Amino acid sequence: MDMLHLDNPSAASEWCVLQREQGRSLGFVATMGALHSGHMSLVRRAAAENDLVAVSVFVNPLQFNDPGDLDSYPRQLEGDCALVAGAGGSMLFTGSLEEFFPGKLAQDGGLEASAMVDPGSGAEGLEGEFRPGHFAGVATIVKRLFEVTQPTRAYFGLKDFQQCLVVRDLAFAQGKPEVVLCPTVREQDGLALSSRNLLLSDEWRAEAPRIQQALRATRALWQQGQREASILRACLVEGLADSALEVEYAAVRDSLNWTRDEPEGSLVQAVGLVAAKAGEVRLIDNLLLHMDGGVDSV
Ligand code: PAF
To answer: What is the 225 CA–ligand 1 centroid distance (Å)?
Structure first.
């Protein structure tokens, strides 16, 4: 079946509602484009578990706290369409901020404050602290995308760990859709796939796998029986100490009971999380320390 490409959310909404009315299950994958194998794994999984798959491509200005990051974010719609079609997508749609939120734009071109969504407790600390406003922007667009598509299931990658918490809580509060969290896809050397990797120079590309190496060393310490967040965190910090990367945070949290600050006492499950700048490019990654691979629920 050919993939349909729609260039506004209202046409996309009509198509999705029609499909659901006809009794078809709909998987949904939200993206900002510049798609890579990580996104494709979400599309393929959605295609395997649903009758149809809708994919959004929208570089959401509401979630960029750094205007330079928004300007440099890679955009390649034609290539994205081909990839989604190849991975079993049924419909891909785009739109402008105005089209997503008709009548709700403020004078400055942003969104009226009253239209912004509270991202909840998963947004507290780490990414939420280093990227003020980011998760409110994510929650606002994801809620809107769920309204537009009304999917049966929505698929998100665990690379953005706190985003997964925010989206899961949002869907839980609304009672739908089912949110499916999927494992991070990596390069051979461990670097988590990200659209921003396209912006790395050769030198920074060579340095970037240090993040995953430090996370794996911390997981090895967990496997030896260490359960204290502060000691696990010290290992993570140590693993990055002589790297050229500029570390914003290297932290350990309880993966099932998110807290803004480091948890005290012995952990039963844990996630190590890192944000670091490779030159101008900000990279994030995480690893579930209590897992050998694969994913648990968060
Ligand atoms: O993960 C992303 O690419 C974005 O945060 C999302 C979920 C598409 C919302 O803009």
So the answer is: 35
pTM: 0.96
Distance 255 CA to ligand 1 centre (A): 21
d(CA 67, CA 71): 6
Residues 85 and 215 in one domain: no
Question: What CATH number did the domain enclosing 38 receive?
Answer: 3.40.50.620
Amino acid at residue number 123: A
Pocket test for ligand 1, best of 141, 164, 184 (most atoms within 8 A of CB): 141
Residues 45 and 176 in one domain: yes
Phi-psi region of 14 (alpha: psi -120 to 50; beta: other; left: phi over 0): alpha
222 and 169 share one domain: no
- Report residue 9 as tokens: 């959310």
**Same domain, yes or no, for 165 and 23?**
yes
Do the bridges between strand 26-31 and strand 52-57 make them parallel or antiparallel, or are there none, so unpaired?
parallel
Tell me which residue range forms the domain holding 221.
195-288
Mind listing the pLDDT tens digit for each residue in 32-88? 999 999 999 999 999 999 999 999 999 999 999 888 889 999 999 999 999 999 999
44 lies in the same domain as 172 = yes
